[in-house]
Write a structure and sequence with these properties.
157 residues; mainly alpha; 78% helix; globular
C-alpha cells in the first residue's frame, strides 16, 4: 500500500510540475524506480514496475509495452552495472539517475518518432535536458536520505 501511494504521489508531482512550469518535465519517477531496483527483491521490482507502467500509460499517451520495455531495460542495465560502494559517491548516483531517465524516456521518444513524425531536436531538447538534470538531482537527494535513514537505524546500506 505504501508503494502504491508513493507511485501516485510521484505521478501527481510530475503532472503538476509539468502544468506549473509550462510543459517542462521533471522526472520524479526515476529516483523511486532506482531505489526499488536495489532495495527490493527482483520479483517485487517487476511487480511495482508493471503497476507503475500501467498508471503511466493511462496518464501519458504512450502504449503500455513501450513504457514497460523502457523501464525494464533501464532497470536491467542498472542492476547489471552495479558499482561497489557507489551509493556514497554523489557523482555516480547523479550519473545513474541521468542515464536511467534517458534509457526509459528514449524508448518513448523512439516510439513517438516512429508512429507520428520525426521529433526535431530543438523542440524536445529543453524538456529532455530538464528531465535528465532533475532525475539526477532528485536521485542524489533520495539516495542520500535513504543512506542516512539506514545509518540511523543501524542497517547496512
Amino acid at each position: 500500500m505504501r508503494d502504491l501511494l508513493l507511485i501516485l504521489l510521484v505521478l501527481f508531482l510530475q503532472i503538476s510540475s509539468a502544468k506549473l512550469f509550462g510543459g517542462i518535465f521533471f522526472d520524479f519517477l526515476t529516483p523511486l524506480l532506482l531505489l526499488w531496483s536495489i532495495t527490493k527483491p527482483f520479483r517485487e521490482v517487476i511487480l511495482w514496475t508493471i503497476v507503475t507502467t500501467l498508471l503511466v500509460s493511462v496518464i501519458y499517451p504512450q502504449p503500455f509495452l513501450v513504457i514497460l520495455t523502457g523501464l525494464i531495460l533501464a532497470q536491467w542495465i542498472f542492476r547489471a552495472s552495479f558499482f561497489e560502494n557507489w551509493r556514497r559517491k554523489p557523482g555516480l548516483v547523479f550519473a545513474a539517475g541521468v542515464s536511467f531517465s534517458f534509457m526509459w524516456q528514449f524508448c518513448g521518444l523512439v516510439f513517438a518518432s516512429v508512429t507520428t513524425e520525426l521529433i526535431t531536436m530543438p523542440l524536445c531538447l529543453p524538456p529532455l535536458l530538464s528531465s535528465f538534470v532533475s532525475a539526477g538531482l532528485f536521485t542524489v537527494i533520495v539516495f542520500r536520505v535513504a543512506m542516512f535513514k539506514a545509518e540511523l537505524e543501524g542497517k547496512a546500506w
